[in-house]
Description:
This protein is an alpha+beta fold. Helices cover 14% and strands 25% of the residues. Strands 1, 2, 3, 4, 5, 6, 7, 8 and 9 form a 9-stranded antiparallel β-sheet that branches. InterPro entries: Fibrinogen-like_C (IPR036056), Fibrinogen_a/b/g_C_1 (IPR014716), Fibrinogen_a/b/g_C_dom (IPR002181), Fibrinogen_C-term_domain (IPR050373), Fibrinogen_CS (IPR020837). It holds the Pfam family Fibrinogen_C.
Amino acid sequence: FVLFVFEKSNQSLSLSFSAVRPRDCSDVLASGISQDGVYSVFPTHDPDGFMVYCDMSTDGGGWTVIQRREDGSVNFFRDWQAYRDGFGRTTGEHWLGLQRMYSLTRSGGYELRIDMADFDNATAFALYWDFSVGRDSVNPEADGYPLDVDQYSGTAGDSLLKHSGMQFTTKDRDQDQSENNCAAYYQGAWWYRNCHTSNLNGQYLRGGHASYVINLY
Length: 217
């Protein structure tokens, strides 16, 4: 899986400003840089900035990568602090961090793209025209970094809209609507409802395995 975000309204930016202080990867692209790689970005609400991986190849480029899973080398069954702050290597498997996602998307105007491939190299994608984490929150962590996502298109089918409005749940912070902790039960972390139609931070399973399912879509 790879999750990207893209700012839809960057066309009106001053190129001289975005070249010096890009808010996200769409600003990096607008400044004339078109090579995939790690860049510093400075969201409006996080002037100190941080490093992100910019995908300049997919669907026109300018995508800020917020999650990547490709080989199972990084453990995604982690606690609240890890998901808040981020983990992994920016050039490989990683989770950018809920606080950084909030900083990027709180002003609105972002879309989300999810690219998926199976072990036979079949691919699919899901695109959501509206995406944010904690957009209306004054204290996003206390509010649970709620997900806001809308308007699906793509080839993968929608498995995320039912999670919109939910708070983020980890194994040590249960904020879902199930009587159990969905993160602990499914060994992941996500914006679970009761429990999920998508679980992109769940177990990385390859090949045949014995498992279980509550809801199948």
